Q: What sequence folds into this?
């Protein structure tokens, strides 16, 4: 089901299409916080039409891509039934409820490894290793990393410590969740036409938090013995994104030269049927 395709029916405008705002949702103003929150990594440009894209597996193994860790889960079977829209419930109510729930759960997991995510251990918002291909198709692991940057008030991409970046994300999302004009909780208040686009942007930023936790802190997750819990939450998150069309697969996978670690995890779970 496409969340965007059902918007017209949910709001009583049969066949209407939501308008995507030209600018991203603005971040609440606060001291020393960049005005915009539209972080991007350097290589997000997709392939040209007809181009064959291949994603090479990391040359250095990642624990979260190795068994038994990749299979660790609290839920057996597919997550699709968990995210299905309940009968008689409005789709936007269901999406709003889940976005609120995901935000709280991701926040809880991050708090568990917060002490390890300091400026020394995580000077940038990493999400994967960077790879370079040279003839004849030799994959080389470079010293560079896939890093998300933040767009500041001057529209410049700036690198931030991961803890600062994630704090900005959580602050921005919390403000949105508390805004009655975006996430109405009182009877009679409608959802705005831009609600799907806002949720998609929120989803993308929370996906980056997952990407960093897996890439930089999975060892810490193992020490706490909560890898089945994190895998279950992330699989639930991916299944929800697929079901309601808020998951951007280009964002999830990165580019062939700058892949994300969670992109490989997604492919493994997809092949196993966990997300179907």
A:
């Amino acid at each position: 089901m496409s969340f965007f395709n059902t918007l017209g029916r949910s709001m009583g405008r049969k066949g209407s299409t939501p308008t995507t705002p030209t600018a991203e949702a603005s971040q609440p103003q606060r001291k020393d916080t960049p005005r915009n929150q539209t972080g991007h990594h350097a290589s997000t440009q997709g392939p040209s039409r007809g181009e064959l894209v291949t994603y090479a597996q990391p040359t250095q193994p990642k624990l979260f891509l190795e068994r038994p860790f990749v299979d660790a889960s609290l839920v057996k079977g597919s997550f699709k039934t968990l995210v299905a829209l309940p009968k008689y419930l409005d789709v936007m109510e269901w999406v709003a409820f889940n976005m609120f729930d995901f935000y709280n759960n991701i926040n809880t997991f991050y708090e568990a490894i917060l002490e390890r995510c300091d400026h020394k251990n995580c000077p940038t918002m990493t999400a994967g290793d960077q790879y370079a291909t040279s003839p004849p198709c030799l994959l080389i692991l470079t010293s560079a990393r896939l890093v998300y940057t933040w767009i500041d008030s001057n529209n410049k991409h700036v690198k931030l410590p991961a803890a600062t970046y994630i704090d900005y994300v959580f602050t921005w999302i919390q403000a949105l969740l508390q805004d009655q004009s975006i996430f109405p909780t009182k009877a009679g208040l409608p959802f705005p036409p831009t609600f799907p686009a806002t949720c998609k942007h929120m989803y993308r930023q929370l996906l980056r938090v997952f990407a960093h936790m897996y890439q930089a802190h999975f060892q810490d997750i193992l020490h706490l013995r909560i890898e089945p819990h994190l895998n279950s939450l992330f699989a639930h998150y991916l299944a929800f994104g697929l079901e309601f069309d808020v998951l951007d697969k280009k964002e999830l996978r990165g580019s062939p030269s700058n892949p994300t670690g969670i992109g490989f995890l997604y492919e493994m779970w997809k092949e196993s049927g966990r997300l179907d």
